[in-house]
Amino acid sequence: MRTRIACSGALLTVLAAPAVAGEAVVLRVGKVLTMNPRDEVIDDAVVVVRKGRIAAVGRRGEVREPEGARVHERPDAWLLPGFVDCHNHTAGSLRNLNDGVWLTNPGLRTVDTLVPESEDLRDALAGGVTSVLLIPGSGNNMSGFGTVVRTAGRTAAAMVRRAPGSLKVAQAGNPERYWFGVGRRYMNWNLEQTLRKARAYHERWCRWEEAVAVQGRDAAGPPPEKDLLWEDFRPLFRREIPVSVHTQIYQVVLETLRMLHDRFRLRVVLDHSTFDAYKLAPLVVERGVATIVGPRQYYFDRSERRIVGIAARYRAAGVRELGLNTDAPVVPQEELTLQAAIGCRLGLDGYTALRALTIVPARALGIDGQVGSVEVGKEADLAVWTGDPIDPREHCLLTFSRGELVYDAAHGRRF
Amino acid sequence: MRPTPPRRRVGAALGAARLLEAAGPLHAPSGAHARAAGLCVLALGVFVAGAASAQSSRPAGPRPSGAPSEKAAKGEEEKAPRWFAVHAGWAHTVTQGVLREVTILARDGAIAAIGSDLDLPEGTEVLDARRYHVYPGLVAFDSAGIVGTSPEDSTDVYGLNLSLALSAGITTVGAGGTVCKLTYGTLEGHVLGRSNLVRLDLSSSASRKRVREALEGARAYLRRLRAAERAKARGEKAQAPKAPRGKGASYLALLRGERRAFLRASTQRELRFAAELALRYGFSAVVDGAVEGWTVAPLLGRAGFAAVLSPRARRRPDERSNRPSGWSIENAARLHAAGVPLALLPRSRGIGTGGLAGRDLFTLALEAAFAVRGGLPEEAALEAITLGPARMLGVADQIGSLEVGKDCDLVVVPRDLLHYESLPEWTVVNGRVAYDKERDTLLRAVRSRALNGENLDLPPLWPRPPGSSTQEGPAGE
After folding, report:
1. Residue A75 within any structural domain of the chain
2. Across the interface, do A297 and B357 touch by the CB < 8 Å criterion?
3. Given CB atoms, is A278 within the 8 Å cutoff of chain B?
């Protein structure tokens, strides 16, 4: 059933649906790649899930398994955290990709466009992808706010992890086609102008809130006027949510770093980061900015007549916060692991590639407290694979979202 | 197109010089032929199947044995044979399983022997791949933009796309009606053959009707012909019917089993129509597309169809149909289980440098890996990018497997071909190294064999050091 629910946008808090309170689940598998800070890989492992969260992880025999739990016994399988993609357009209706009204459309939200249980989302689950950032298209310079969503969930509300999830900015490229065409100089000026207005709004409110805190409500006077155009920018300037930037090509990424990171001090996610932008890797390292590479995975360097594996190059230059994306539907969401395979084919190492699908994008989106690794207390967003997920020959057997089995290959292979 | 950078020209020149050097003295010692013949006997003893395919119909083709060349027969001076050998750690023959630690010896571009402890003729160019896996060169049933539209007249033998295809391990491509070898640097032996397939257009109701009527016409002719023959046999006076010409002759060849049909069909409905037509008139076909082939796999098997497909070709289920529909990752596996021979292709049949990998021929081997994901056995997946398409293109007597008598077309990879990190190190076409990852600039820096894992680090920042760029001060603060 296709349900479209337009979430009320008046409240911009986290629309958290109640956690699934189902039965306990025990997963006995051949290998767990925890993707935790100690990079632990546990062979012959058990994962216990209670009330939708991970209750225990460890070697078989060393973990107490609750009685009456539903047991999934897959002694040859690998278990990993559900994958996270920072760049998705298919969790919502694609016809709402771009609202090209103005060159910058700051107040718009993708949370209005969610489509739960779509074919695309079910495919995503079959690819082990459990969380995505649904962002507006890059047809405009600034196209509004994305939503961090679960790919599982029967209602739009159940899908939402965080709204607003991020601000989407497109520097160069697609917005150049707007109206009669605009150039990068204009877009930089325009973007900066818009952000200054947003920041002024935020600062007005901050001053008032401070006055309330210091002098009390009565002395602080009337609050500034609420403006939906700028309201979502407040968590952005508080650095609670990132700005995910459609940015690629040397000069464009350079301006992203200078404007959005250095001048506006935003939490920046470099989304795409492709073409020759890898040459800026030292600046990326210096700033600790998350770099999410895709959907292109290589750059053809004409001056050297060579193919450059972009992710491998960032990694070689010391970029730790390296992720991979699909820009679904450019690359289908379930083929996120193929992006890793291509990255590795062109020089990336396998473990870095797996981090790039799990903990790194989770951290980039600020949801690493809930997902991105197999650690006690985190939501049980897990996927069980026949083997190395990067290998196209292997496939996903089971996918769990908050401990609930949301894909089972035995009941109809989807991918 | 940009002019070729100078370094490339130097590289090519070096490559040519190396090959000349490797070819050795132009006049081989007199014992060479005898030794080679001896090797062949030895090899034929091991590879019985090789003997059958040792006949090459190509006039200018290589000769597997030490028989005198045509030129020699004409009394011209005999050219010394060109010897090439690969020491393979693992030789994945496709037809004879995997052979450990063997040498593949080629004479004038054709495999002359496969075995251990081969006595190599003097001047043999040797490729040491003892730590590598050797496969027959990959075959793309169809391609776009790799060879020229009229290949022998317009292929750029140093073209980027041709090099890219070689770097992906591809040695032969179908292109339009032509089958081409990716002969790097030469047009010699470039065109391998012409397709003998009869194209049937089943795309519209009107075209399907035309095909059906034409087949009916061909069948009616055959009936009249037989009637006339019978009458003649009875001694009656009978006039033979007028044989169809042009397209009619092609349809006749289909019914007589002399040629095979080629048609596009993707949905269950299209496939069913095509298979039933083939069964009714008794012809066989190569079907291109077959996205919903898994829904009618036994029927396609019965019809003797072969399928060209892309394992990830997507199609949403058709809710108006009460039959299973839509794409399935298990498509290739189900068709294989039903006895349908396969040729795998990516969704795009071109090759390019756009950067979106995994969609075109640059990752043909990964397409086979996706078929394995859907349950196709690995050997069948390998065959579906080598011998399978070679058979459908009608060139399986020359390419598609590692067998004595076949062309020496190889791809050498560091681990099993279907693994995602398996980038070809060498690609050999007609017994010549057509691609060497360390010599070609394309992928040299990726897990460099020469640098042994050492990091080829970033070039100096270009075009300007941007460190100072952050000193402009925070705006508006």
Report:
1. no
2. yes
3. yes
Of B372, B418, B441, the CB nearest to A305: B441
Q: How far is B42 from chain A (nearest CA, A)?
A: 38
Q: Cβ B328–A413 below 8 Å, yes or no?
A: yes
> Which domain range does residue A101 map to?
83-372
Per-residue pLDDT at A3: 40
Q: Could you tell me which residues come within 8 angstroms of residue B343 by beta carbon, excluding any fewer than 6 positions away? A: B139, B141, B286, B306, B307, B308, B309, B384, B385, B388, B389, B392
pTM over 0.80: yes
Number of domains in chain A: 1
Distance from CA of B463 to the nearest CA of A (A): 9
Give dist(CA B181, CA B177) in Å, integer.
Answer: 14
pLDDT in tens, A132-147: 999 999 999 999 999 9
Whether residue A164 is preceded by a cis peptide bond, meaning omega within 30 degrees of 0, is: yes
Interface of A with B in 175-194 (CB under 8 A): 192
Of B363, B420, B441, the CB nearest to A304: B441
Q: How far A56 CA sits from the closest chain B CA (Å)?
A: 31
CATH number for A319:
3.20.20.140
Confidence bin at B74 (pLDDT 50/70/90): low
Residue of B nearest to A336 (CA): B358
Q: Which of B328, B357, B373 minimises the CB distance to A342?
A: B357
Whether A356 contacts A19, CB under 8 Å: no
Question: What's the pLDDT score for residue B447?
Answer: 86
Residues B80, B86, B89: CA angle, nearest 5 degrees = 165
Interchain pair A295, B443: CB under 8 A: no
Give the single-character DSSP code of A44. E
A262 located within any domain: yes
Distance CA B232, CA B228 (A): 6
Q: Decide: B409 and B428 in contact? Cβ < 8 Å.
A: yes
Nearest CA in chain B to A265: B474
The first and second tokens of residue A186, run together, are 């204009």
Domain ranges in chain B are 1-69+79-137+400-457, 200-382
B326: three-class secondary structure by DSSP: coil
Instruction: Tell whether A208 is covered by a domain.
Output: yes
Instruction: Tell me how far the alpha carbon of residue A52 is from its chain's centroid.
Output: 21
Chain B residues touching A338 at Cβ < 8 A: 358, 366
**Mean pLDDT value of segment B137-149:** 97
CB within 8 Å: B455 and A316: yes
Q: How far is CA A269 from CA A33, A220, A239, A302, B161, in A?
A: 25, 37, 12, 27, 34
Report pLDDT for B77: 67
Residue A26 in domain: no
Q: Does A6 touch chain B (CB under 8 A)?
A: no
User: Cα(B371)–Cα(B351) distance, rounded to whole angstroms?
Assistant: 20
Amino acid making up residue B64: P
Helix or strand holding residue A198 (H, E): helix A184-215
Who among A257, A264, A338 is closest to B358 (CB)?
A: A338
Pick the CATH number of B1-69+79-137+400-457 from 3.60.150.10, 2.30.40.10, 1.25.40.10, 2.60.40.10: 2.30.40.10
Q: Is B34 a residue whose pLDDT tops 80?
A: no
Nearest in space to A356 (alpha carbons), one of A292, A263, A281: A292
Mean pLDDT to the nearest integer, A326-355: 97
Rounded to a whole number, what is the distance in Å from the CA of B126 to chain A's nearest CA?
27
Assigned token pair, A74: 């897959």
Residue type for B437, please?
K
Q: Which residues have C-beta within 8 Å of that of residue B367, sequence separation ≥ 6?
A: B310, B311, B312, B344, B345, B346, B385
Per CB-CB distance under 8 Å, the chain B contacts of A394 are: 373
The whole-angstrom separation of Cα B350 and Cα B163 is: 13
